[in-house]
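User: For this week's homework, look closely at the record that follows, marking any run of repeated tokens, and judge whether sequence predicts the tokens.
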Amino acid sequence: VELDEVRYKDGKIAYSDVLKLRIQERSTDDTVRQDELQLASDRADLVRLVGQPQLAPDFQLAGSLAPPAFPASLTAEALLSRALSGRPDLKALQASERSAAASVTVARRQPIPDLGVLLDYDRVPGNAGQYDVSLTAAIPLFDRNKGGTIQAEAARRKAELAIESERLQLRADAEKAVQALDTSRARLQVY
């Protein structure tokens, strides 16, 4: 930059050439600052991944950071099956769906009359005892619990939709992760 400014003062180059060089200088300085910030960010991520007590504040990397061996073929379906078997949020949704299905069963059984049986023995002194048997049943003539059944069915359907939504989200996340892995593999091979 200083050399070109001298050349400009001597009239050997145009002022636009000096401006271009100044812009390049600023761009290079910005790139250096961005790379220094990225290095600091990467060091912080490494400290977070390894654990704060294991690394000294002024640690230096020795050797190479060789990546672990990649699985031979990781597919979205394999990743999805692992996710479906181990995700606690999906298990919680499935438990809520089972609970809602049980509520539907209870709501459907509510109109069925409850039978009550009473067996009683009465004895008056001087007389023979007597047995009384009573059978009671409450028959719901006007209340078939249609509203409760519909509400329980809606809760069960809502739980099923939540599970389906979670599965679709997991599938999308698995496909995105496999694509990111493939991109990272390709980038790593280039490096």
